[in-house]
Amino acid sequence: xxxxxxxxxxxxxxxxxxxxxxxxxxxxxxxxxxxxxxxxxxxxxxxxxxxxxxxxxxxxxxxxxxxxxxxxxxxxxxxxxxxxxxxxxxxxxxxxxxxxxxxxxxxxxxxxxxxxxxxxxxxxxxxxxxxxxxxxxxxxxxxxxxxxxxxxxxxxxxxxxxxxxxxxxxxxxxxxxxxxxxxxxxxxxxxxxxxxxxxxxxxxxxxxxxxxxxxxxxxxxxxxxxxxxxxxxxxxxxxxxxxxxxxxxxxxxxx
Amino acid sequence: xxxxxxxxxxxxxxxxxxxxxxxxxxxxxxxxxxxxxxxxxxxxxxxxxxxxxxxxxxxxxxxxxxxxxxxxxxxxxxxxxxxxxxxxxxxxxxxxxxxxxxxxxxxxxxxxxxxxxxxxxxxxxxxxxxxxxxxxxxxxxxxxxxxxxxxxxxxxxxxxxxxxxxxxxxxxxxxxxxxxxxxxxxxxxxxxxxxxxxxxxxxxxxxxxxxxxxxxxxxxxxxxxxxxxxxxxxxxxxxxxxxxxxxxxxxxxxxxxxxxxxxxxxxxxxxxxxxxxxxxxxxxxxxxxxxxxxxxxxxxxxxxxxxxxxxxxxxxxxxxxxxxxxxxxxxxx
Amino acid sequence: xxxxxxxxxxxxxxxxxxxxxxxxxxxxxxxxxxxxxxxxxxxxxxxxxxxxxxxxxxxxxxxxxxxxxxxxxxxxxxxxxxxxxxxxxxxxxxxxxxxxxxxxxxxxxxxxxxxxxxxxxxxxxxxxxxxxxxxxxxxxxxxxxxxxxxxxxxxxxxxxxxxxxxxxxxxxxxxxxxxxxxxxxxxxxxxxxxxxxxxxx
Lengths: 255, 333, 201
Prior knowledge:
Number of helices of chain A: 10
Helix content of chain A: 55-70%
Oligomer: heterotrimer
Helix content of chain C: 25-40%
Distance between the termini of chain C: 47 Å
Number of strands of chain C: 8
Order of helices and strands of chain A: HHHHHHHHHH
Strand content of chain A: under 5%
Low-confidence stretches of chain A: none
Low-confidence stretches of chain C: 193-201
């Protein structure tokens, strides 16, 4: 076991990336509150958004702990960074789209978090293992919810099928980035801190491909275009403008 | 489930059986018994309740919008989490209230259609815009604070499903009020930017909140009957007085100024005296000419119409799988 | 007309030895979605251990007042006489027995086997009558969908940590005491005697 207070720049970057994925996804999910197709889903997706926000906070807090930062560190990370300093995958920063788009993206990320946490629960880094256990139990519920939706929309009407296929066509090129190994991360894999992305991708596909197939959805032919998490689309700029707007009115204040 | 013979009696006011039923009905209420779906009730009671409960439900649903608009701008992680939870609760409250209305024999499809087609009323407080972040806290403190008073009263209502929905809502609403008070108190004593933001919010939300508590007693013809039927226990002016007595000192105590130059406390009567309420403005907003009436409805119409393919797809799937709930034989006498 | 999906009554069990209690309904397109919706609508605050959902229209509901009606009594008597060679099914019986202030409605009291919902009601009236029953519900067991045993950790336990939904989380902001409020009120005995803050336009 690695002593919990040891950390490296590479581990810090990995933690930041993991937190950023959840934060941006939570933000996109929360945009639906008040606009969902039916009241029950305003409530359901708001639960998911709160959970993801909670997951992000757990990772940011660990980062704060490992770097011995002050307790305002998570807020500073979220409210003071520019787009080029964020490390989320591009999939989560894409606009929320229609309900099919959101449910499919949620499904891909729930499946990803589910398999990732399954591995991280056995991480050699105790803090990471503890957080993963906590997150995992919430992800089991998320996975049930989003997989139920994807299946039903794919098999529902012609229109819902077409919208789900369109969402798949848009999102599939972004999937590869989830399983890309950043420079230096091989050492984290060797140390048993994070799982081998190849294994992760395999586990993820074992879940996802059968469901997409049940839905009779066609996988687009694409190759992965993105590798660096430092690359972002203009969507992230727009998102951060929204996110940081009030804070920036008085960055010195305690909000 | 009402037998055919019953529904005739419900409306025949000259029928001697009707007077007897009415006497028994009012005696039950006087004994503190809840009236449940299936029990005899006068048609006027049923209609009054459907109107009240559905308006309350619509208010919660529309009420998601003014604060929901600020979720993406919440200035720290904690406030963001809290606001998502609060707006989520508003959806939940709408859900509980639609349920209560449905027990009286009206379908949610009808209620939703009435709202979106502009035929239904909802609390006009939500036809005001939220212009800055502190509005979120001010709504929590003032609007939810005022609503809690009414809700506590309504939890004693004689109709079971409404009473139970209100008890659940009351238990959830307390954090809404608290988080707003905490935010505004913090900002009022915070930086100049924050203080000014809080004061600006108060300037715009004070009067609409007073108006939200309803017309003066002299202008409220329904009150008497509502009190007799255990649907209301205090008059509008009584609730308004209690609201000012609690809230005004706290707002002043944290350094904010209430936008009523005539507001004063009369030691002899122990009552707060306030300036005249601009009812003309209030009625304009109620009639649909408020600053945000059209936008609020348009937003809900958009969510509804863009969600139509979703609702239909889910039904289509259930039908294909033979799972449609409506396929069950209806259980009735 | 638009669909808001059918209604499902929701029953919540707060802890392992507590009865299932009706808490309200959810709209859902099928039983599995109804369970998920019920968890989000009714399980986001503690305490929830297990959920049942059942299509609203499949439940036979009758009040004590309705039971006093001669027509209904006759129909129950007829149902009681149904031949026992008819296929028997399980029915869940729920009752409302209190007039106390509450957010829950009928409670599960037990099951009967019967050839029809009305016969189930007749048997329930025999078997489960007690001093004051205000409302009876009879629900076929086969239409009830339940949350799977073992999901508590993922479905219900997380609610315990969402303390920001409780008013006590905002504890430092309490109500001013009556004497404090009176003191401020006394200072406001003249109009316009408010603090230095300008009322901005």
